[in-house]
Each structure stands twice: as C-alpha cells, then as structure tokens.
C-alpha cells in the first residue's frame, strides 16, 4: 500500500552556488509505501493508521516551517533520511520525497 502527503516548507542551502543559497520554499510531496504480511483483517496496515503516524511524526512537524530549524543542511536527501528516521517503527519499504514536480529523492529499505 502507498499513500501520498503534501506539505509546504522553506529552506536555505548556504553552501549552494546558485539561487538556492537564498531563502525559498517548496511544495513537497511525500510518498510512503508499506509492505509486509497481511494481518487478520487482510491488510498490511489500515490507511488511517499510516496517516496518523505520518501526520503526527512528519507533516505536523514540517508543514509551513523553515526546514533549517529542524535540519542543519536540509537538502532533499537529508529531509528524506530524517523522514525515514521518524517512521522507523513502520514497515515502510519506500519513501519518496518530491521537492519539485520534476525532482525527487527515493529511499528503499
């Protein structure tokens, strides 16, 4: 099963030689895929269960924030790794973070 979540956040990459060295924002899209054996209900986990964890552990903490306050170097790769750490208790198999409509980072377990 897979779910998509959207959030808005800003960041600055001071080391960047281009315009990303200035404060700017993105409309992020986070996709989380969970895999595993079906339980007695016939699901790996209910969508509501996944939503509850992702919303409380990730979305509520990042939406409409300055990512530099959470991560010292908030590249798409580092944000995706941070998300993976927050969701370590879930049976996720893929986390994909879209920073732009054309660019994403994918982590597989």
Could you outline the blueprint of secondary structure elements for this entry?
Elements (H helix, E strand, L loop, with lengths): L1 E10 L12 E11 L12 H16 L2 E2 L9 H11 L5 E7 L5 E5 L1
Parallel strand pairs: 1-3
Antiparallel strand pairs: 1-2, 2-4, 4-5
Q: What's this, in brief?
A:
The protein has 109 residues and is an alpha+beta fold. It has two helices and five strands. Strand 4 and strand 5 form a beta hairpin.
Please give a structural write-up.
The protein has 109 residues and is α+β, with helices and mostly antiparallel strands. It has helices at residues 47-62, 76-86; strands at residues 2-11, 24-34, 65-66, 92-98, 104-108. Strand 4 (92-98) and strand 5 form a beta hairpin. A 5-stranded mixed β-sheet has the order 3-1-2-4-5. The relative contact order is 0.22. It contains 2 helices and 5 strands; from the N terminus they run E-E-H-E-H-E-E. The chain is elongated and about 55 Å long. It starts with a strand and ends with a strand. The chain has a single domain, classed as 2-Layer Sandwich (Tetrahydropterin Synthase, Chain A). 25% of the residues lie in helices and 32% in strands. The mean pLDDT is 97.
